[in-house]
Amino acid sequence: MNARTGLLSLAVVLALSLGAARADASTTLGSPDTSLAPDGFACAVCPVGTEMGFVQFALRDAAVQAPEDGVLVAAGVHARRMAPGEPPRIAVLRPASDGSEGVTVAGSAPLPVSSATSAVHEVEDLHLPVEEGDSVGLLFREGEVDLGVTMRARPDGAIQSFSLPCAPCGMDGGNGVELLFDALVEPDVDADGLGDETQDPDGGGLGLDWEDDWFEDFEEGDELDEELEEGAPLRERRPIRILDADRLRGGGASLLLRVPKAGRVSAAVTLPANRRTGAGPFRTILTGDKRVRRAGRVRLPLAATPAGARVLDRRRRVRTKVVVAYFPRRAPLTVLMRSARL
Asked: Which tens digits make up the pLDDT trace of 318-334?
């Protein structure tokens, strides 16, 4: 192991340790894999025209309640369209204030379903406030839409259902069923109604690592700003930035970086061992290393590790942590950590 590789390893460990120390990590509530082929449908015996709600009450190896306050920013469902009508709604369900076992609908948003043969449907850029202990359910009218389910060994896969309207909603339970829908809840540290990882330009006040040009528009042949040129004084050059992250067809990924001067960049893309809390230890799924000969934008290819190839083959999107180590010539090491959905 050479000195630079050792420094990168130390930088990755320190950066991920700092990230793991934050309690406010994004959480996926519901099914761990909505892309599974359904074994059946949730409302096979519901009376046509009934407005129904379904919620996952317990599911091994998955989170079904928000561990802390935040914002629901995206959701997905494996469902089918049976007849014209309104779209189903992803709903934030809050424990009833009267102390009963029921819930109230604290907020909801449409999740359009169009496929008659059942498929995964997704919606993003949601802004539904979530409180600690809230769960997420799907609301729909029987005969128009139905929700895909897959079977689990009992007593795992406890679900509850209820008829609308209700306030609070008293629920009937069952088990052995996994409802094929999920929702992504992100922290909202500064309480501005924006998810800190994908919506808030400053990451909830996390600092310079969260930059508002994370997915800025660019052309590969763009002229560089004068302050990025090699001859500019170091104090006038911009710090290293991550401009884009892309998952590539056939495996692997790439990062688009902007660097202030020549040097070397190395990157590691990781997944947390605990998907519910975002805590480590972290599993490395992609790595890359490249010498940079001049200031400006540089595309850094990333190769999948064996474990990463398995993850990327079976999951369409993953929430990752990206750590970039930048070794400029005759200047101190810089480490940049970001979240990215690949």
From this structure: 777 888 888 887 777 78
